[in-house]
Design goal:
- Among the domains are: 47-131, no CATH class; 135-261, Alpha-Beta Horseshoe (Leucine-rich repeat, LRR (right-handed beta-alpha superhelix)); 275-361.
- Helices cover 7% and strands 22% of the residues.
- The longest helix has 33 residues, at 5-37.
- Strands 16-17-18-19-21-23 form a 6-stranded mixed sheet, with no helix packed on it. Strands 5, 6, 8, 9 and 11 form a 5-stranded mixed sheet that branches.
- By secondary structure, it is mainly beta.
- The chain starts with a helix and ends in a 5-residue tail after the last strand.
- A hairpin with a 6-residue loop joins strand 5 (156-160) and strand 6.
- 41% of the residues are buried.
Length: 570
């Protein structure tokens, strides 16, 4: 039966509005999605914007840069043009926040932190920041803000300061108050100094406020104070280049009054203003990135056992010796590429350290840099490093992966000693100096020593009990004393060159079956094959006549029972 054309046209005309409506709806959806994707921010992790590390955050949870030194004082400082990038899900440029001035939400007092926030004028995102407590400001032995009374002479040992005017506190006893205000006057004279270790191992104190009269602190003044959480320095205290804390895991606040012209505090870092040296940090510190810090002072974070992670930002250039020594809870550290020097023992005894980002332009890894970092599993050495100094990774028992750069020339003595999880390592072709570096690496299975290395050092592979495969360099000058002593899995060694084999070079290599000795050898010292119970013969590249010319120590009785294969060629 023929269809009626009129009915067909009617059906088409009824579908047309539906199609147009669907297209319009699709366009609207696309426009809405585009607008959403171009808005700033990301997932909101914490409506308050606060992070556990105390850093500035916005409502999206994105960390912003550290602020100016005025931040801790609660002043309403800010920069209208300061920006922080948001997130974007496509290739279009991310929205850039434009923040206004800070607004104080809560003023800090002597013991309680405050808070402040600022708002992006473009999108309304907020950043919040904690303001450190102020500490007590003592005058005539009383806080001028809250009336807190200072310690009395009943709890203090003191004496005239022997190196200048005033009194110094030599001891404290019988403390029952956790919130201490140190007196500024004793026996009618100003208190100018607190001696070394005065508060050592004090479990009572939680907050300490130093009066403006104090200008000097002794070494480890607050050593081993497990409950100490705040130190307020005075207006006149100056350059303190000795560690005053140690093993105080709970310090959150280090406060310097803004009137101090020598020091200032910023995000719980104490900084020498003129030299831009960070003197002291704590577990709650954020190192400023505004140019106020260029150097991390010797022992600046030493024994900060509460510190778990930290970023060393640009433009810091130098980390001095022992800066993070014995930070036992430190898990991760990121060091910006502006840093060109890291001192000795910087991470010594950081036993929890797992994640390390080293700066790109280091030329050397210093002595005992990561010694006894027992949790460190892998490390990438920057491309410009030329030398790894002695003991650098000594005792890193979890270290499995080490990526060495082609720039590396020298590996010092004990550099990887006792790295008992290290199974393999690729030495760069440009290496020229290899010290006693891999002693007691009990998991190391194979090693290829580049031809550029002409000299090895005593005991470089002592007690590498898993070592089965070794390739020695072609221009080796000598086989040093105890080189492979105790390598109980080593089955064969081909000595490529050298004029002598020194004492006990292969002693205790109980699985050793094949040894190739070059014709260049002129002197074999005592007991080179002591306790090599599997060795039956020696492959010698010279003639029988050449062999008789070798000077052999009288204590090499084992050579008398071995068969010699002369003129050996592989």
């Amino acid at each position: 039966m023929n269809k009626n054309p009129t009915d067909s046209n009617a059906k088409k005309s009824n579908r047309l509005p539906v199609i147009i409506g669907a297209v319009v709806l699709l366009i609207i959806i696309i426009i809405v999605l585009a607008v959403c994707l171009n808005k700033c921010g990301g997932e909101t992790n914490d409506p308050s914007g606060a992070r556990s590390d105390g850093s500035i955050t916005d409502d999206s949870g994105s960390a912003a840069s550290a602020e100016t030194p005025g931040a801790e004082s609660g002043t309403e400082t800010g920069t209208e043009s300061e920006t922080v990038s948001g997130t974007s899900s496509d290739d279009s440029p991310a929205h850039v926040h434009t923040f206004g001035d800070w607004t104080v939400l809560k003023e800090p007092d002597c013991l309680t932190p405050g808070a402040r926030e600022r708002v992006c004028s473009a999108c309304g995102e907020k950043q919040t920041e904690e303001l450190s407590p102020l500490g007590h400001e003592g005058h005539n032995n009383e806080c001028i803000r809250c009336g807190k009374k200072a310690l009395t002479a009943d709890h203090i040992g003191f004496a005239p300061y022997p190196y200048g005017d005033g009194m110094w506190i030599t001891s404290v006893h019988g403390l029952d108050d956790s919130d201490l205000l140190i007196p500024d006057v004793l026996d009618g004279q100003s208190v100018t100094c607190i001696a070394a270790q005065v508060f050592e191992e004090n479990e009572t104190i939680e907050t300490v406020s130093l009066p403006d009269s104090v200008t000097q602190l002794g070494t480890f003044t607050f050593y081993l104070c497990p409950n100490l959480r705040m130190i307020r320095f005075g207006k006149n205290i100056g350059n303190q280049y000795t560690s005053i804390t140690g093993y105080c895991p709970n310090i959150d606040y280090l406060v310097v009054p803004p009137e101090n012209t020598l020091l200032h505090s910023d995000h719980n870092c104490v900084i020498e203003t003129e030299s831009k040296r960070l003197l002291y940090g704590c577990r709650n510190s954020i190192i400023p990135d505004d140019g106020s810090v260029l150097i991390l002072e010797y022992t600046s974070f030493q024994d900060c056992t509460g510190l778990t992670s930290i970023v060393v930002p640009s433009p810091v250039t130098t980390i001095e010796n022992c800066a993070f020594n014995s930070c036992e809870s430190l898990v991760s550290i990121e060091i910006s590429d502006s840093v060109t020097s890291i001192g000795e023992e910087t991470f010594l005894f950081c036993k929890s350290l797992k994640n390390v980002r080293l700066p790109a332009h280091l030329k050397e890894l210093n002595t005992e840099l990561f010694e006894f970092c027992e949790s460190l599993e892998e490390i990438t050495i920057p491309d410009e490093v030329e030398e790894i100094y002695s003991g650098c990774f000594y005792g890193c028992t979890a270290l499995k992966t080490v990526r060495l750069p082609e720039s590396l020339k020298t590996i010092g003595n004990y550099a990887f000693q006792k790295c008992s999880s290290l199974e393999s390592i690729t030495l760069p072709s440009g290496l020229t100096h290899l010290g006693e570096a891999f002693k007691e690496c009990s998991s190391l299975k194979s090693i290829v020593i580049p031809d550029g290395v002409e000299e090895l050092f005593t005991g470089a592979f002592i007690d590498c009990t898993s070592l089965t495969d070794v390739k020695l360099p072609k221009d080796l000058i000598r086989v040093p004393r105890l080189l492979f002593s105790g390598c109980t899995s080593l089955t064969s060694v081909a000595i490529t060159n050298g004029n002598e084999i020194e004492e006990y070079a292969f002693s205790g290599c109980t699985a050793l079956k094949s040894v190739t000795i070059p014709a260049s050898v002129k002197y074999i010292k005592q007991d080179i094959f002591e306790n090599c119970t599997s060795l039956k013969s020696i492959n010698y590249r010279g003639s029988a006549e050449d062999w008789t010319k070798i000077r052999i120590s009288s204590s090499n009785d084992v050579l008398e029972r071995l068969s010699i294969v002369y003129d050996y060629k592989e």
